[in-house]
Amino acid sequence: MQSAYIHLYLIMINVITFALYGLDKWRAMTRQWRVREKKLIILALIGGSIGAMIGMTVFQHKTRKWYFRLGIPLILGIQVSLVLCFYDMM
User: Fold this and answer.
1) What is the pLDDT of residue 34?
2) pLDDT the model gives residue 66
3) What is the structure's pLDDT at 1?
4) Which residues contact 48 (CB under 8 A, 6 or more apart)?
5) Buried b vs exposed e over 59-83: b needs ≥16 C-beta within 10 Å?
6) Model pLDDT, residue 52
7) Residue 31: burial class (beta carbons within 10 Å; 0-12, 13-18, 19+)
8) Which residue positions in the chain have pLDDT lower than 70?
9) What is the spatial distance between Cα 60 and Cα 50, in angstroms, rounded to a whole number?
10) Quick one: 1 exposed, middle or buried, by C-beta within 10 A (0-12, 13-18, 19+)?
C-alpha cells in the first residue's frame, strides 16, 4: 500500500512539472510572468525529473541553458540509481 502512495506521488509531481514547463514556455512566448527557474529545478529534485526531461523535449524549453541540459539528466540519473538501489534492498 505504501508503494502505491509513492507511485501516485511520482506520477503527480511529474505531471505538474511537465505542465509547468509547458506553461513557462507559453508565457515566455507571450511575454508574461514566468515560472522561476529555481522552482523548475526544485520540482525535478523532489521527483519530477522525468516530467522535466519530457517537458524540455516536447516544448523545446530550457534546452539552451547548460545547467538544465546537464543538471536535469544528472538529477534523473541519480534518482533512477536510488530507486534501483531501494528496490534491490527490498
Assistant:
1) 95
2) 94
3) 65
4) 13, 14, 16, 17, 18
5) bebbeeeeebeebbeebbeebeeee
6) 98
7) exposed
8) 1, 90
9) 15
10) exposed
